[in-house]
């Protein structure tokens, strides 16, 4: 009989076979041989059982389905069941690992910060946005208490009071954040951070814009209403005074019209409903028209020159007319009588450039970075004298953004200014 077949037999029947074999030995060879046969059979069964128990113990220390041993008899069924269970566990673990990887990838792409903490606020995991918002580094800070990493007093009070129903707005470094703790499970909490720095800045710009626009409109309206009141209360004004009042009212009305037109232009440039529709721009014709307008505005008070040496562009003709015209107009307004204004269109290796150079009053360095802000004026009194709206360079900035161009400003007080508009080579129109 094949010994391996013995272990496919149930344990009770297997013992009966051993005893029957021992009885045969007893009958054939005597009592001693029968006892030896019984002991030998039981020892073989015990050794085999211990062998498989040892293999099972070894496998339990490292339960890998590929290392699961084969067995004989009942052990075959045991190991088969363990194999199926282990394969199911490995499949579930692989699925969980895949879902965890997807979760972390999704969390990594979120613009909001997510920090997972335990019940005593020790850091377990955070996404890149949270690292940026709170100055964390997962590899360095994992296992540390979040209150030791974020030491803002308002945040500490928020943690101590435990009022997590409402979010908290805090200033952290150079950012403004809305943070909220969300308890989940028994031993986990989520800290969510939302950066509102840009939203706050935009809201402040909106408030400043409304305030500045209201201020700019108030002065001409006050002048016009004042003269209208005089004209109503004093119908017999002499013709010279009446003409003087009408002239001033006309100037203030024109100022309001210019301001409204510039605000509408800015709104159109910022709107997604008015995308740029590129066309071939005849730069020579455009700049010659701007030169003629500049000569008319200067009325002989300045020397104006134009040099053309660059290619045509792909872009918005009217938008570029507005941007170039604003730069030339500013040069005329802020250059004293007898000054010189040079306008040039140059072709450089990096791309074409529009340059306006004057020898006017110049700009101090601390003002240059803010020149393209709406309603920002270096000299408010002089700007009003020259009928400026304070929106010209803001319009220039937005036009250049739509044309993927940059503005470089070089200036020294009392020495003059140079405004350089640099275009990309990809905007050059085919000839």
Provide tags for this entry.
single chain, 431 residues, alpha+beta, Beta-Lactamase, Helix Hairpins, 4 domains, 5-stranded antiparallel sheet, 5-stranded mixed sheet, 15 helices, 12 strands, 17% strand, disordered N terminus
Structure description:
With 431 residues, the protein is an alpha+beta fold. It folds into four domains: 3-86, no CATH class; 110-195, Beta-Lactamase; 214-270, Signal transduction histidine kinase, dimerisation/phosphotransfer (DHp) domain (Helix Hairpins, Orthogonal Bundle), CATH 1.10.287; 279-427, Histidine kinase-like ATPase, C-terminal domain (Heat Shock Protein 90). 55% of the residues lie in helices and 17% in strands. The protein has 15 helices and twelve strands. The strands form three sheets. The protein has a five-stranded antiparallel sheet with strand order 2-1-5-4-3. A five-stranded mixed sheet has the order 7-9-10-12-11, covered by helices on one side. Strands 6-8 form a two-stranded antiparallel ribbon. A hairpin with a 3-residue loop joins strand 11 (406-412) and strand 12. Helix 2 packs antiparallel against helix 3, helix 9 (197-233) packs antiparallel against helix 10 and helix 10 (239-270) packs parallel to helix 15. The radius of gyration is 43 Å and the shape is elongated. It starts with a helix and ends in a 9-residue tail after the last strand. Mean pLDDT is 81; it is low at 1-9.
């Amino acid at each position: 009989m094949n010994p391996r077949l013995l272990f496919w037999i149930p344990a009770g029947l297997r013992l009966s076979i051993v005893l029957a074999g021992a009885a045969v030995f007893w009958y054939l060879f005597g009592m001693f041989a029968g006892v030896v046969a019984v002991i030998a059979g039981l020892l073989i069964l015990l050794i085999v059982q211990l062998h498989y128990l040892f293999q099972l113990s070894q496998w339990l220390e490292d339960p890998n389905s590929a290392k699961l041993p084969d067995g004989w008899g009942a052990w075959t069924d045991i190991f088969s069941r363990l194999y199926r269970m282990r394969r199911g566990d490995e499949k579930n673990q692989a699925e969980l690992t895949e879902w965890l990887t997807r979760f972390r990838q999704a969390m990594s792409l979120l613009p909001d910060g997510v920090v997972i903490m335990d019940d005593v606020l020790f850091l377990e995991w955070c996404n890149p946005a949270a690292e940026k918002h709170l100055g964390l580094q997962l590899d360095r800070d994992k296992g540390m208490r979040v209150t030791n990493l974020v030491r803002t007093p308002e945040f500490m009070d928020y943690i101590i009071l435990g009022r997590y129903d409402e979010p908290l707005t805090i200033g952290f470094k150079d950012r403004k954040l809305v943070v909220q703790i969300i308890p989940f499970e028994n031993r986990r909490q989520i800290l969510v951070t939302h950066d509102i720095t840009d939203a706050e800045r935009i809201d402040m710009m909106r408030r400043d814009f409304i305030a500045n626009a209201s201020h700019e409109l108030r002065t001409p309206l006050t002048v016009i209403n004042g003269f209208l009141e005089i004209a109503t209360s004093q119908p017999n004004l002499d013709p010279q005074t009446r003409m003087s009042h009408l002239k001033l009212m006309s100037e203030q009305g024109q100022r309001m019209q210019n301001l409204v037109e510039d605000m509408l232009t800015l709104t159109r440039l910022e709107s997604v409903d008015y995308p740029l529709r590129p066309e071939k721009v005849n730069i020579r014709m455009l700049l010659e028209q701007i030169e003629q307008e500049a000569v008319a505005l200067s009325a002989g008070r300045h020397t104006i020159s134009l040099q053309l040496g660059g290619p045509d562009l792909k872009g918005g003709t009217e938008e570029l007319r507005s941007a170039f015209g604003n730069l030339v107009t500013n040069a005329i307004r802020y250059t004293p009588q007898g000054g010189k204004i040079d306008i040039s269109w140059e072709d450089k290796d990096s791309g074409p450039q529009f340059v306006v150079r004057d020898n006017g009053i110049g700009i101090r360095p601390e003002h240059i970075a803010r020149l393209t802000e709406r309603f920002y004026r270096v000299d408010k009194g002089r700007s009003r004298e020259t009928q400026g709206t304070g929106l010209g360079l803001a319009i220039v900035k937005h036009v250049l953004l739509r044309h993927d161009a940059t503005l470089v400003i070089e200036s020294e007080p009392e020495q003059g200014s140079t405004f350089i508009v640099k275009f990309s080579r990809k905007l050059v129109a085919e000839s």
